[in-house]
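Suppose you are handed only these lines of text.
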Amino acid sequence: MGRAIAIASQKGGVGKTTSTINLGAALAEAGRRVLLIDFDPQGALSVGLGFNPHDMDQTIYNLLTSRDVTVHDVLLKTNVKDLDLIPGNIDLSAAEVQLVNEVAREQILADALKPVLNDYDYVIIDCLPSLGLLTVNALTASQGVIVPLECEFFALRGVALLMDTIEKVQQRLNPELVLEGIVATMYDARTVHSREVLQTVVDAFGDGVLHTVIHRTIKFPETSVAGEPITSYASSSNGADAYRQLARELMAREK
Ligand code: ADP
Ligand code: MG
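From them, the structure of the protein bound to magnesium ion can be written out as follows.
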């Protein structure tokens, strides 16, 4: 059975989408079968993999809201071997309101993904920057959650609220869910400031912080424009190696 991991934070711009693409690609490179889910109406994950989400009529939105759409109808192959995508676009912004009156509204994504869980080793869900019903669906469908934290002032602001949401989902909806860890992103070793923020995060969360630290590099914005993961766009870069290391850290937990 595939392990589903939500990449979550209600903050925008912390590296959720970048981590989804590049962790996914690094896991695929290591021989795992990976499915990525674009669970943000911005569609940045789809764009980052070279798709134009605006001219797609079958997306994660249709899977969530139409009974006659199955997960097989919305699956796409990417240019990376063993890396598949369920795209998302602006349509998804209507789902939050539409699903409110559904029965078991928090479990809709989990149910929809069931038919393909055996086809993948990892399913990685790129969440939108909110703690609303869609993110709760992602957490309910997952066994693990990774929280990217940008090494900037106020990095910890809002993390308590996110941890509280994760705990509520564990207690009420999904006792299987574990915090895989916090991953520090956009770390700049040259600044005292970045080092201080990282230290604060480690002091606050201890073992809850993954060992891999993702440094700040212009290569990441470049890869989004190129529409491919850093592991293929700049295969020998430090950024690619950082996500390979993150992949190894997760694979070391495989039983
Ligand atoms: P989120 O999905 O949380 O909103 P993104 O992954 O889209 O965040 O990242 C926000 C912006 O920061 C993007 O332009 C992305 O290319 C850039 N970025 C992400 N990670 C890094 C990094 N390690 N170094 C430099 N820029 C980064
Ligand atoms: Mg994003």
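What can we learn from it? The radius of gyration is 17 Å. The pocket of magnesium ion (ligand 2) is lined by residues 16-17, 40, 44, 126 (CB under 6 Å).
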